[in-house]
Design goal:
Protein name: DUF1707 domain-containing protein
InterPro entries: DUF1707_SHOCT-like
Number of helices: 4
Shape: rod-shaped
Number of strands: 10
Strand order of the largest sheet: 1-3-5-9-7
Order of helices and strands: HHHEEEEEEEEEEH
Strand content: 25-35%
Oligomer: single chain
Radius of gyration: 29 Å
Pfam family, one: DUF1707
Number of domains: 2
Helix content: 10-25%
Structural class: alpha/beta
């Protein structure tokens, strides 16, 4: 939004009024002009209206109207739902990992790589695999508790510690593996990891 359209506060009005009183003391405006301009200042609602009675006056060094608030920096959402029917979803690199994840697939695949991004210390993960697959790759020190996952004919495979550590994210996983698969592991770094030795 443009600065001029932003709403002002009482503090903004007082700063503008002080600038007008300073202009009077310096002989830049008359007492009559001060009264007229103060009326405008105290009735102003936006920065555009507030700047009007100050337009022909120099701002005091290091002063002037307060800057409007900076837009809030987007932050990762607290909860994200990723869902696919028969397709695939991949998240890797530097991506905003939320505090809660819901992962749903029918016959597709979801692959989440948490090794190259900042993560919350604890992440709640709710899974529903259907006949699909879900894979979560954790950084060194990452751990996962999968005791809350139910299986029918599916499989749950975890190759990371169940006990939280001080150096990686801890996943608390719940939900259902159905007829699909859930795999939680660390990144593969050599042939030994690839062949499961």
């Amino acid at each position: 939004m443009e600065r001029g359209k932003l709403r002002i506060s009482d503090a903004d009005r007082e700063a503008a009024a002080q600038q007008l009183h300073t202009a009077l003391s310096e002989g830049r405006i008359t007492l009559g002009e001060l009264e007229e301009r103060l009326d405008v200042v105290y009735s102003a609602r936006t920065f555009a209206e507030l700047e009007l009675p100050l337009a022909d006056l120099p701002a005091p060094a290091g002063a002037g109207l307060p800057a409007p608030p900076e837009p809030a920096v987007p932050t990762p959402r607290d909860a994200v739902h990723l869902t696919t029917e028969m397709g695939s979803i991949t998240r890797a690199g530097d991506w905003p990992v939320p505090r809660a994840l819901r992962l749903t697939t029918s016959m597709g695949s979801i692959h989440l790589d948490l090794t190259r991004t900042a993560t919350p210390p604890r992440i709640a993960v709710d899974v529903s695999t259907g006949m699909g697959s879900i894979t979560i790759v954790l950084p060194p020190g990452g751990s996962a508790d999968v005791d809350g996952v139910k299986t029918s004919w599916g499989s749950v495979s975890t190759k990371v510690p169940q006990t939280p550590s001080a150096t990686g994210p801890h996943l608390v996983v719940t939900g259902s593996a159905g007829m699909g698969s859930l795999t939680i592991r660390h990144a593969r770094r050599g042939l030994k990891d690839w062949f499961g030795a």
